[in-house]
Specification:
The structure holds 2 protein chains of 2 kinds. By secondary structure, chain A is mainly alpha-helical. Chain A has 16 helices and 2 strands. Chain A is globular and about 90 Å long. A 5-stranded mixed beta sheet of chain B has the order 3-2-1-5-8. A 3-stranded mixed beta sheet of chain B has the order 4-10-9. The chains are: A mainly alpha, B alpha+beta.
Chain lengths: 591, 292
């Protein structure tokens, strides 16, 4: 094999200079960690923004020390809405599960020395980082950050400052950042796909790949197809703003009393392009989590994944169907109602592979020997949140019901549970599970469990009541409740959610303390602390520069060989040959 | 244990570590606590939905009642799935916690996969088909010919309603004539005779028990028209005229809110819909005709 990765790792020595080793590194492990810390930075900012929002929703007249002018204006609230959503969706839920953990573990799990294109990988990260800086800069320009939400519907976003504060340079920076992010994601996805196809170790057939690898592969394909559409749409929107084109702007717009000289465009076109990206994006956020928790549930149940082939097939089915259901975001947009019906039935169909996955997770637990280490607790939490949030989606998938629930807090509760909290629990599970491998040290288990209990209960206390607010007609993206008379009655629920949000956010301090303390002082991790089977556990913690110290593994078996009858221990690593098992048995019999 | 083929750097650490793992085992606390939390989640959620503590106000259309029935049906199906899944999860983690037993080795079950795939297809797609009737009644059928027509124009951050007047026809609009401060917020063309009797008001008034057709349009950005009691929500999109229809069967004042993020005043964008008796409606039209 003469791939670029082999050339980079021709010697199994890491580069000596600090810059090439830790900053502009082409080592997939370093790139993965860079993405990981970028996501941690983004999630911290995202949580702080959401706390400001929650605070403002309950005490709108309070003086806030770090808000310009003391009292938050409605446009500042909307800027928080926009930036919270954007940071979380792009820089946390896209970056952490796929770019961070995928980068770190995909090559190791398939027995490769690196990604197929290590330098492209480095470029992907630094472009994503540039996109992040560009996004944060939107806070600092005239008019502040955009007020249009993460969906950026034109004409609100297509005309510049005339439609509102934040719609000037802030919105431009937002679009430019998204364009850079799209480009970086496309490069990353090509790299992932090539790596899975081309770099698998001898014996690592597709049907022996861990489900994490399946999930990263399907996600990479979704990324390739979805982000390319957002990239195109974003360029068109930028042209509408800056070059006077009218892709999304119809004739006869009168904004703030001024007639606009545009004609021929369609606001719905943007929604189609955006949601053609936006809906698969939901799966980009959740599929890697599904892969990770399948992996973890098997590990700590000491059982093979129940229905491995079905699990791989449903990942593909969800990925495929995910491209056919974007219209369920547009039931009340003015889209043809007949297509609404088609999108509705397709949306309900994607509930089927999702439910089948849930059944298989329960099947994996059933009859197991369940060990409640922190990664396992978070994986079980993922299943619970995914069930709850998924089932509330059955209402929204029906256009007749969506005509009442659309744009209410019901939707906010639904997607936070199913793609937000569930994905975050996938990220936490992955962090607690792989931290020993990534940093060579164990995390503190007591703190990890405390973090779990508070976050599990807290997240339900924040997002379940949102459903109730929504059913009663509480509208999302309202800066306060004074605009419509009936909203005052929902304030007690909002107060409860705000208190829950502050407690849950405080619980995350436990996570960060544990993380940074363990980085420095955690107990030394063995190579295989969880008695797991996949290839990342046959190398040292952390792995050497070329992952396997020059001895590349050969794969003899499937990824989840736990509690195999007749074996002398309850896990069989993938690189263990039949002869070695026989020899081991002989020596035990002799002994 | 030769099997793992690992070159551990520190055998002592390894032994210590596995001893600690062994200590973790056997403790029932995490499994019991998690199962209790899941049971509490189910109990509280079922109670709040069953007691109908939160919900929209009563529907004022027959379509709204049909939608409410579909909502109830969906609630029952998803409720059963929710209870079974969460309690099943709780039961599994209680029953199968590590007590030193050997895990039951299985790679899956084709029968089980076929069974639960079929059940979910029937349940989910069946719900969608059941609900499609309400959607069809709402959107596939056009408004009846004798509907009261009202045009709804949205702009940052107000609703404006226009009635066609005695001639039953709307006058021509011209975007270049829009001038709200001068009293022409819609850009009515003064040279068009059809528009002279048009009635333009900030609050919607409709007669009870008569079909009403609203024609939604927007001047600037995308807005929305939502009345909870109608169970009806529709975006108003610039460049499009989108019709919706309903027949309200209860007199009263209902709140109209905007649900599509339209700018900094989004949260304040609202108006009212007065559903009035037939005679009050005639009165309203006469009074407005005199004012125009």
């Amino acid at each position: 094999m003469s791939s670029p990765a082999r050339d980079v790792h021709a010697t199994s020595e890491a580069p000596n200079s600090f810059v090439r080793r830790y900053i502009f590194s082409s080592d997939h492990k370093v790139v993965g960690l860079q993405y990981f810390f970028l996501a941690l930075t983004a999630v911290t900012i995202g949580i702080l923004l959401s706390l400001l929002m929650r605070f403002h929703l309950v005490w709108p007249a309070a003086h806030l020390p770090f808000v310009a002018g003391g009292i938050m204006e409605p446009e500042q609230y909307l800027a928080l809405v926009t930036m919270h959503g954007t940071l979380m969706v792009f820089f946390v839920l896209t970056v952490a599960p796929q770019s961070a953990f995928g980068n770190y573990f995909l090559p190791i799990q398939i027995g490769a020395p690196d990604m197929a294109f290590p330098k492209l990988n480095m470029l992907s990260f630094w472009l994503t980082f540039t996109a992040f800086l560009c996004m944060i800069a939107a806070f600092c320009v005239r008019g502040g950050a955009p007020i249009s939400g993460w969906t950026a519907y034109p004409p609100l976003t297509g005309l510049g400052e005339i439609t509102g504060p934040g719609e000037g340079p802030g919105q431009t920076l937002w679009i430019v950042s998204i364009l850079i992010f799209c480009f970086a994601s496309l490069l990353g996805s090509v790299n992932f796909i090539a790596t899975v196809i081309d770099m698998r170790a001898p014996g690592m057939t597709m049907m022996r790949m861990p489900l994490t690898v399946w999930a990263w592969l399907v996600t990479a394909i979704l990324t390739l197809l979805a982000f390319s559409v957002l990239l195109a749409g974003g360029i068109l929107l930028l042209l509408d703003r800056s070059a006077g084109t009218s892709f999304f702007l119809p004739a006869g717009l009168v904004v703030n009393g001024e007639l606009q000289s545009r004609s021929g465009g369609s606001p719905l076109l943007w929604q189609h392009l955006f949601w053609f990206f936006g809906h698969p994006e939901v799966y980009i956020a959740i599929l890697p989590g599904m892969g990770a928790i399948s992996h973890i549930l098997a590990n700590f149940s000491r059982k093979p994944v129940f229905g491995y082939r079905v699990m791989a097939a449903t990942l593909c089915a969800i990925g495929f169907l995910g491209f056919l259901i974007w219209g369920h975001h547009m039931f009340v947009s003015g889209m043809n109602p007949y297509s609404g019906l088609a999108f509705s039935l397709l949306t309900l169909s994607i509930g089927v592979p999702s439910a089948v996955k849930t059944f298989n997770w329960l099947g994996t637990l059933w009859g197991g020997k369940i060990q409640f280490h922190s990664p396992m607790l978070f994986a079980i939490g993922f299943v619970s949140f995914f069930v709850t949030g998924g089932l509330s989606g059955i209402f929204l998938a029906q256009p007749a019901l969506d005509a009442t629930l659309h744009a209410t807090y019901y939707v906010v509760g639904h997607f936070h549970l199913v793609m937000g909290v569930a994905s975050i629990f996938g990220i936490f599970a992955a962090t607690y599970y792989w931290f020993p491998k990534m940093f060579g040290r164990m995390m503190n288990e007591t703190l990890a469990k405390l973090h779990f209990w508070l976050t599990f209960a807290g997240a339900y206390c924040i997002f379940m009541p949102m459903h109730f607010v929504g059913i009663a007609g509480g509208i999302r993206r309202y800066a306060d409740w004074t605009g419509a008379n009936y909203l005052a009655a929902l304030q007690p629920l909002h107060r409860f959610m705000t208190v829950a949000a502050f407690i849950t956010a405080a619980a995350q301090i436990i996570f960060f303390c544990n993380l940074f303390r363990s980085l420095a002082k955690g107990a030394r991790a063995p190579a295989n602390p969880w008695n797991a089977t996949t290839l990342e556990w046959i190398t040292t913690s952390p792995p050497p520069f070329d992952n396997f110290g020059g001895r590349y593994p050969r794969v003899y078996r499937g990824p989840y060989e736990y509690s195999v009858p007749g074996a002398s221990q309850d896990f069989l690593p993938q690189n263990l040959s039949a002869e070695e098992i026989a020899r081991d048995k002989d020596s035990q019999d002799a002994g | 244990m030769r099997l793992s083929r690992l070159s551990f750097t520190d055998a002592f650490e390894r032994i210590k570590f596995h001893r600690r793992l062994a200590d973790d085992r056997g403790s029932a606390v995490p499994s019991v606590l998690l199962a209790v939390l899941l049971a509490a989640l189910v109990a509280v959620t079922v109670y709040i939905f069953a007691a109908r503590i939160y919900g929209p106000p009563a529907a004022i259309t027959s379509l709204g009642l049909r939608i409410d029935r579909q909502y109830d049906l969906t609630l029952y199906v998803t409720g059963v799935a929710f209870i079974l899944a969460q309690l099943g999860l709780g039961y599994a983690i209680l029953r199968f916690r590590d007590r030193g037993q050997r895990a039951h080795f299985t790679r899956g079950s084709t029968i089980a996969e076929v069974l639960w795939t079929s059940v979910t297809i029937v349940a989910f797609v069946g719900l969608g088909i059941a609900g499609s009737k309400a959607w069809a009644e709402m959107r596939f059928t056009p408004a009846s010919r004798d509907s009261v027509q009202v045009e709804v124009t949205t702009t940052q951050f107000v609703y404006t309603f226009r009635y066609p007047g005695a001639d039953g026809k709307f006058g021509r609009l011209d975007a270049s004539l829009v001038n709200a401060p001068a009293g022409n917020p819609l850009g009515l063309d003064p040279n068009d005779a059809l528009g002279r009797d048009d009635v333009v008001v900030p609050i919607l008034t409709v007669p009870v028990n008569r079909p009403v057709e609203l024609l939604l349009r927007s001047q600037d950005v995308i807005h929305n028209f939502f009345v909870r009691e109608l169970r009806l929500q529709q975006d108003a999109v610039p460049g499009m005229v989108i019709p919706i229809h309903f027949t309200a069967d209860r007199i009263g004042r209902y709140e109209i809110v905007c649900t599509q993020l339209c700018g900094l005043g989004h949260y304040k964008m609202h108006s009212f819909m007065d559903v009035v008796s037939e005679s009050d409606y005639e009165q309203f039209l006469k009074r407005q005709a005199a004012l125009q």
